[in-house]
Amino acid sequence: MNLSIRNSLPLISLLILGAFALTGCVGARMGVSWPAVGLIELYGETHITIAYNNDVAILSPSNGAPARLINPLNGEVMRDNENNPRTWILRGSENEGSQFFSVPIRIDEDTVLIADNNKRLLRVDSVVVEVQRAYPLADKVLTNMLLAGDTLYLPFQNGGLSALALEDFQEKWTLTTDAGIWAQPLLVDDMLIIPSIDHFLYAVDRFTGERLWSLDLGGAVTSTPLLANGRLYVGSFDKSFFEISLAGEILNEYGTQNWVWGTPAADENGIIYVADLSGYVHALDGENGLRERWSVQIAERGIRAGPLVFGERVIVASRDGKVYWLDKRDGQLINAREIDDRPELLGDMMLLEPSENLAIDEPLLLVSSVHDGRLLIAFGVDGRQTWVYPR
Length: 391
Prior knowledge:
Radius of gyration: 20 Å
Mean pLDDT: 91
Low-confidence stretches: 1-32
Largest sheet: 4 strands, antiparallel
Strand content: 35-45%
Oligomer: single chain
Distance between the termini: 38 Å
Helix content: under 10%
Structural class: mainly beta
Shape: globular
């Protein structure tokens, strides 16, 4: 194992692997992880999906309540033996102690795919929320899968990536890496960009797996790169942030105060916003060689999640249990909201714009925590709390 990877593992283990990494036991509870949050279609509308430890749930964006199951034959709400409404929650405790760290992917009107940490890909009947079949995988999946066309791309916790045919889940090709892939790959046209803990950023042909280029970034790469300005932007555990061409050439580099874990954000002016594990937020000019516009230490603890940009604001969530709104022009603090009990905010945030399909009238900021009583918190973009989903 590379020395700098070995030196990174104590904090990585603290945040993600915990006792699980030490024991490798099936069904062992993860020490401290964070929820994966995404969107999924259900009953013709867009819903929120959240995967965390032993459960996967689908929620209503308007109030955060678990979606009720609807009988497709009569349109009525399904009910259990005690006449309570059934809701869309897949429980690992009912499926061989599964744990879930990637959101489900819909493949047709009635079926979703979910990877669990028992080295399985679960085909789930979305109507009644029951596992139809479990396909064995080469390794555990710790981050979101990627579906593109007729191919499902699976990044593995301990290294490597498999491309599976969606028709029969047979392997099309594999990529070997020296350490795990803990962030979802990025698809750019027909090129798949893959970050890895082994320090490398890989680019492969999405159809054949042929390696197009690989780039050593000096430290573990744990985030999906951002594509902006026709270039890639990504940080590493070398306390560095990079601007990279689509041909695999490092164009510019910026030194951060600490490791960069989350995906950066960009605004309409080409300014790139990146946060690090010392609580700093940096604004860099993507059109001028990553020239620093401003750099401020806003949080008391590290910022793992990537920033979000909305209007004239940059929003970050920190391990100190707070969400911060900054003026994107100079980094000045505009607002801060402290989550009750100040749980660590480790998962990536999501911003939902109003739409008829989402059934919300105002923009909604989704922030996840490691507190079971406040697993997902929805805010208005002004910082007003809208709803809370407890597990």
